[in-house]
Amino acid sequence: MNDISILHEGNRFLLTNRAMSYAIEIADSGTPWNLYWGAPLSRIEDPPSPRERQCHRHYSPARAAMLYRELPVFGGDFHDESALKISYPDGIRESIFLYTGFDTRENTLVLNFREKRHPVRLNLIYRLHERVLERSCEIINDGECDITLERFASAVYFLPNAAEQWRITHFGGHWGKESIPVRQAAAQGKFTIESRTGLSGPFHVPLVALDEGGATETSGEVYFATVLWSGNWKITVEQNWYDCTCIHGGINDFDSAVFLHPGECFPTPSFAAGYSTEGFSGMSRTLHRWQDEALLPRGIANREIPMICNTWGSLQTHVNEENVIRTAERAAELGCELFVIDDGWQSALGDWTPDRKKFPNGLRPVIDRVAGLGMKFGLWIEPESFEIDSDLYRAHPDWTMVYPGCEPLRKTRNDVGPRPRVSVMLNLAKREVAEYLCTTICDLIRTTGIAYLKLDMNCYFSSPGGAERLWIDYARNLDWIFQTVSRTFPSLLMENCASGGARISLQMTRAFGRVNRSDNQDPLDILKLHEGFSALNHPRMAGGACHISDTMAHINNRKTPLKFQAFCGMLGSLACGKNLLLCPEQEIAEIRSYVELYKKLRPVIHRGDLYRLVSAYTHPYAVYAYVSQDKTEAAVFVLGMSIQFADKLPPFRLPGLDHDAVYDIVCHGNEIEDCWNAAIREYPALSGAALASVGLRAELTGDFDCKILHLKKRV
Predict the structure, then answer these.
(1) 332-384 per-position pLDDT tens digit
(2) Which of 384, 520, 388 minimizes the C-alpha distance to 457?
(3) CA atoms within 13 A on the CB side of 169
(4) Smaller CB count within 10 Å for the chain: N or C?
(5) 40-54, 332-346, 488-502, 626-640: segment of lowest average pLDDT
(6) Rounded distance, CA 649 to CA 638, Å?
(7) 212, 165 in Cβ contact below 8 A?
(8) Helix H segments across 489-544?
(9) Quick one: which of 602, 603, 621, 624 has its CA closest to 613?
(10) In a 3-state reduction of DSSP, which class is residue 422?
(11) H/E segment holding residue 282
């Protein structure tokens, strides 16, 4: 149910979907301000009045309107964080926007405003989805002179007044340790998370959630918001002197003043928000469904991800026609469905043609052999950099990202071949560079017929010069490139990788159906990495090349069993990066059995709802449950780190099933059994009510023990 209600001839608006309501009122001064955000309301009269919204008895309704403005603008008697700040040619730096009307169209409300003294218009845009509200704005310069946008947040969301203390949840980290959940109390002042790398990560994820301190994974009210932007972003949680709490979000204004030329419109990216009464897992399920319903390309949404074999973990850059074909033949024996050549196939970064020494006949023999084995074919590219020793650099050194009159920062890698690779960044903020790259990628896809394209980006921005608003134009052009590629090749599956998870944002979901969760694919670390990754991203999108692999041992100098690698990899979309040319037949057979199990469970893992039941941050094991949306099936992963003292795991309650139905349960992974602690080999059938109330047990022993419980509803 999506509904936009309007009262008082366009002075009060109530937006309601399945999960929440959001209310706005235009004050007598012509300023829009927030009335309500929370559980669904059925009547437009239900949100509080401006006087009831006021947060202090000595703070007048007129001043309260300053506090709860839908987009707080710098100027006048306003001293909190400004979402919008404009400098005009006449020296005035404040703005007074007056309401001029509204427009509605299919689940969208637009509120229109005009600046009192200058020819500038402002549109506030609200897009209502099944469970999420997207907000953004447009600033239009109708004058004859440039104006300067110094701040340009997309939206501000105000929290209810009822809470005595808000708790902030955000997700931070670094390379190899992305999306780590962090919780802290909100306090008077400002708390900011942001990106300044030119990418959306990896030091913070563009997502923030607030609750009253008691929400869990499965229960409690959670308010959340995320910026859909592939470049520098900023989210600020502000609590003022009167305990009014709000969330600002949008493009980071760091080093990015925008000179808005006459006739130009500056659209901000979406700052989307939602509300859950089912805790943090409920927040995630809301975001996951939104991705499938509205964000992912239609040819990719709800699609199961194929079983992948990637050459990075086995051959690294030492690929050639002979060893790639031999590896593909072994991959087909495993039951792999997609074969990907990673880094090393190209003549140089920037020149996306095959290396003639490694592939003297081009890629065609490999492509034909992979197709003959019944697999799809994919390639890796790192399109945002180009090597000094490339034809592209020799032709266009002027396309380098560099300050005027300076040398570009060169990146040298000694781990990718017999000679060092020296590269610099392409300046995608230049439109001609973006158009060239888009054409090059499309030509590569057409000539090879690939079904999969893995993007990589192995550096943060350096020497960001050469364009008027480089940080912003670069992100817009990057989105334009890959959304164009996605529209041109609607069945193409693309993986978003940037040194692992350094460019995780829902904006990338508009083109990419798979994400490298992290370059760290140590399965023990995956138990924690998947928790933070799946807070924002659909769990099936959790990618990477080396889930089943020996190459991840160097992360922690730890070796793990094949079964543990495979079961942890199945939490997302499974890939094998093991050197199959060196595997004995026994290992090949074992891996094949995991691939068969993955394909059996994949429909519920990739299309079901995720419940994070037990966290590896607080227990020596983790439990992740996937429940089909029709409640007929579930897959429960019980993944142990180190069990001590022969401790038994307590039963865990499994929500999301049909309480009246009976479920048969099959356990996968019961290899360990002894006379003292016999493993449960056969489970009795249980009702959905019993599973939700009494719970389900699994036994783990020692290190790296793991089980998958597969539940099916009796017909």
Answers:
(1) 999 999 999 999 999 999 999 999 999 999 999 999 999 999 999 999 999 99
(2) 384
(3) 25
(4) C
(5) 40-54
(6) 10
(7) yes
(8) 523-536
(9) 624
(10) strand
(11) helix 279-290
